[in-house]
Structure formats: structure tokens, C-alpha cells
Design brief:
Layout (H helix, E strand, L loop, with lengths): L20 E12 L2 E12 L3 E5 L6 H9 L6 E6 L2 E2 L10 E4 L11 H7 L8 H14 L15 H14 L4 E5 L7 H18 L3 E5 L2 H7 L2 E6 L2 E6 L1 H6 L4 H8 L3
Parallel strand pairs: 3-8, 3-9, 6-7, 7-8
Antiparallel strand pairs: 1-2, 1-4, 4-5, 9-10
Helix pairs in contact: 2-3, 2-4, 3-4
The site of adenosine-5'-diphosphate has 10 residues, from helix 1.
Organism: Planosporangium flavigriseum
Protein name: ABC transporter ATP-binding protein
Keywords: ATP-binding, Nucleotide-binding, Transport
């Protein structure tokens, strides 16, 4: 692994060929009342990496994601996105894409307007905007549904639109919190494939939250296994599965089926 001190722009490979760091997190701590839910999180997410936070309910995954997104403050620690301190920036200023359950599509807008929403601040002319929206809807396989309202779509289609909306303005980092949680098994497998394809195509840096081991194994370049506000393991799926660093991790993966 390369050291990352002084990286300002994260898009270039480091001299030894490793990918540079997109998000740098050090010693993040967070308590609610007197319960410490994050106990010193250290994490480097590399450019283009698909990193998953995996762990049981209550282990702190969503809290960490919400802190990175800017919806929640942290008590101490440091966070840099492509070299820049983002701790004091509002969620909108952080230049992130988000696919959260609470971040639903706007019901009164068409699919196309939902996807265009995040592009408003770009001040593109309408032809360019339309072309971009079409391109994103094609990428998620829904160009024919541009004029529908969200309620006229299935759950899986709505998730695809949410993904297209999040990716339309090429965020530096895409955060996804259990995006497939509400879908049935078949649809989930289909959406996993879709996510893999989109990720390969765009190379977006992703942090993905799930409690589903199989989903994490299928999607991730690396997995951080969370246990009571700490990482119990952080490695590639193969390494974690074959050489679990603790009994907690081993037990967690052995329950995968
Ligand atoms: P996970 O995403 O792994 O299920 P969370 O990050 O949602 O875990 O929650 C971690 C712990 O923090 C849980 O015990 C939860 O009850 C607590 N928690 C989360 N958000 C709040 C909040 N706003 N106020 C108080 N406690 C919270």
C-alpha cells in the first residue's frame, strides 16, 4: 500500500502503479449520548475502488457513511476528499453522489427531471442537459421511461433512476446505503450485475453499505467488516474469506449462505 501524504488531486496513479487515495479518513470518533458508536475509524478509499462497509445492524456503518456525506458531525478525526479537508463543508459542497433510502426520487417530477436535478447547478444549455440525461438513462437501461413519474415504476426501476441521478454529475465519490435492501432476491441479483457494469464503465469511487455478506462478496474490491464501531477486518473479499483476521469475521462470512 502506498503512503498518501500530500496527495492533492487523486486521479493520477502513484509512481509504483498503485491507485491514489480518493478519500482519506483518520481516527473518526462519534458518540450518541454516552454510547460510542465509532471508535477511531481509519480508512483510505482508492480512486475507482468499490469499497463496502459490511457488518451487523448497529455496528456503525450508516453513521460512518452519514458523517462522510456531511449529514452527521463527528466528534474528532480527519476527513479528506482528493486532498481537501471536507469536515466543515455542507453535504452539497462535498461533491458526492448519494443513493440512500431516505434520498428518494422526487414524486412530482418525471424520471428525466429527477436525473437532471443534480445537473441544474452546472448551467448547461438544454440540449447538453438532455443529452446527458438520455446517456445516463441508457446506461441504466431505462431510456424508454424518461417521461414517467416515479410511482409508475417498479422498485428496481426506481433504484436504477436513483443511480442514474447520483452518477449524472460525475461525483468524486458515490455513497450507497443498502440501495438494494428493499428488492426481492431476483431483482437484487440483477441490480448487483447492473452496479458492477456501471462501476466498470464509469470507474466511480464507491462506498457501499450493506449487512449482506453475499452482496459484499459479489460487488467489492475491498470490504471493511465493522464490529461495534471498529473495523474487524479490511481486505479483499478473497483474503477476508480465505484468511479471516478474527473469529468475528470468520463467523460473519460463514453465515453467508
Ligand atoms: P448500522 O448502520 O451498522 O446498522 P448505525 O450507524 O445505524 O449502525 O447505528 C450505530 C449505533 O448508533 C446504533 O446503536 C444506533 O442505535 C446508534 N445511533 C445511530 N444514529 C443515532 C442517533 N441519531 N441518535 C442516537 N443513536 C443513534
Amino acid at each position: 500500500m502506498t503512503t498518501v501524504a500530500g496527495v492533492e488531486r487523486g486521479t493520477q496513479p502513484t509512481p509504483d502503479g498503485a491507485r491514489s487515495v480518493a478519500l482519506h479518513v483518520r481516527s473518526i470518533r462519534k458518540s450518541f449520548a454516552n454510547q460510542e458508536v465509532l471508535r477511531g475509524i481509519d480508512l483510505d478509499v482508492h480512486e475507482g475502488e468499490f469499497l463496502t462497509l459490511l457488518g451487523p445492524s448497529g455496528s456503525g456503518k450508516t453513521t460512518l457513511l452519514r458523517i462522510i456525506a456531511g449529514f452527521e458531525s463527528h466528534d474528532s478525526g480527519e476527513m479528506r476528499l482528493q486532498g481537501n479537508d471536507i469536515s466543515r463543508l455542507s453535504p452539497a459542497q462535498r461533491d458526492l453522489g448519494m443513493v440512500f433510502q431516505q434520498y428518494a426520487l422526487f414524486p412530482h417530477m418525471t424520471v428525466a427531471d429527477n436525473v437532471a436535478y443534480g445537473l441544474k447547478m452546472r448551467r448547461w444549455d438544454s440540449a447538453k442537459l438532455r443529452a446527458r440525461v438520455e446517456q445516463m438513462l441508457e446506461m441504466v437501461g431505462l431510456p424508454h421511461l424518461a417521461d414517467r413519474k416515479p410511482r409508475q415504476l417498479s422498485g428496481g426501476q426506481q433504484q436504477r433512476v436513483a443511480l442514474a441521478r447520483a452518477l449524472a454529475y460525475e461525483p468524486k465519490l458515490l455513497l450507497m446505503d443498502e440501495p438494494l435492501g428493499a428488492l426481492d432476491k431476483n431483482l437484487r441479483l440483477q441490480m448487483e450485475e447492473e452496479l458492477r457494469r456501471v462501476h466498470r464503465q464509469l470507474g466511480t469511487t464507491v462506498i457501499y453499505v450493506t449487512h449482506d455478506q453475499e452482496e459484499a462478496l459479489a460487488l467489492s474490491d475491498r470490504i471493511a467488516v465493522m464490529q461495534e464501531g471498529r473495523f474487524a477486518g479490511l481486505d479483499t473479499p478473497t483474503a477476508l474469506y480465505q484468511r479471516p483476521p478474527s473469529t468475528f469475521v470468520a463467523r460473519f462470512f460463514s453465515n453467508a449462505n
